Amino acid sequence: MTRKNLMAYAIACFTMTVTSSCKADRTTSSQQMGPDSTATVQQTKESHLSLLFAGDLMQHGPQINAAHRSDGSYNYDECFTAIKQEVERADVAIANFEVTLGGPPYAGYPQFRAPDEYLKACVDAGFDIMMTANNHCLDSRRKGLERTILMMDSLKVPHLGTYVNSEARQEQYPFLLEKNGMRIVLLNFTYGTNGLVVEKPNVVNMMDTTEIRADIAKAKTMNPDVIIALPHWGIEYQLLPSAEQRRVAKWLIDNGVDHVIGGHPHVAQPLELSEDGNHLVAWSMGNLISNMKNDNTYGGYMVRMEFTKKGDKARLSDCGYSLYWVSKPVDSGGKHNYRVLPIDMPDDGLNAIEKSRRNTIRTAMRKLMEKHTKGIKEYTF
Predict the structure, then answer these.
(1) CA 198: distance to chain centroid?
(2) Calculated CA dihedral for residues 334, 336, 341, 346, nearest 10 degrees
(3) CA separation for the pair 381, 379 (Å, rounded)
(4) How much is the mean pLDDT over the chain?
(5) Mind spelling out the 3-state secondary structure of 134-149?
(6) pTM over 0.70
(7) In whole angstroms, what is the distance from residue 105 CA to residue 72 CA?
(8) Where does the pLDDT of residue 43 fall: very low under 50, low under 70, confident under 90, or very high at 90 and above?
(9) What percent of the chain has pLDDT over 90?
(10) Fewer Cβ in 10 A, N or C end of the chain?
């Protein structure tokens, strides 16, 4: 695809609002009501909030090499150009940052250590909040965990899942998102850290039911409209959720979580919506971007959720998913140029190999979704 066509999918600017810790408001903010305003008017006012969730932001060695420039810097701008408009449409966009920013030397699998420019590119793409509790969060040990947090704080990127110490966790977790008159509490935890031990005083949220139960109890005291759990779980490369995922999801909902949006398997797993429409579970969104080559690993979906609040009651009024895939065309210098593309983006600029890759992943994901995802629509962008 030509750069001109790619830019047609992008929007011109990105605005980070420090006070709200997310995008600038896309709707008019509620006006302060005067003392003579009636309770009836307050109860009939309706507000809306759209959230977007994306999968694993990976950085394998070939991706780092592709981003490297002759002056020693790293440039990832083209990676997200084609999905930026979709990400920016949401009031708040959240993704799983599955690398560490431990500083040079940089490295890919099995212990990820990405350039700082990668985080900046993710922010410029429109992602507002980063999840950091995943099995790679200790890849560059204590230095990497703490430096990742430091870099996010320096860019004013809200994050949840890992903490420099227990005091920081106590102050910042559960994560409260306040936007458009709604209060959304986010919980993020991981099944493990690839056998690496958390060094004190650092804290990584683990998938421990005793700890999570206490976190849910604390979340309920925060007067939330919605509680959303974001677990890093499941079995890699399996297209359907494991029995353990199903057990944990049921336990979370039984204990007061409203929705569950998961990741880690590196492939897309289906979504499920409860019969009453009150609980959405996305078992795995797959990779957002990576260098993985195995079947089903170079595509995934983003989850879109719309909440409507009238009076003091908020509900899930709409939800769906958008499919995408990772293109790796070779540039004139012989490097792969990684790009996240909508699954139905025009073929212009794709060579025969890329078209075949796209067609293969599109067929596989749509077959999976059509068979196992009921009552949840696919959005196109």
Answers:
(1) 23
(2) 20
(3) 7
(4) 89
(5) CCCCCCCHHHHHHHHH
(6) yes
(7) 12
(8) low
(9) 81
(10) C
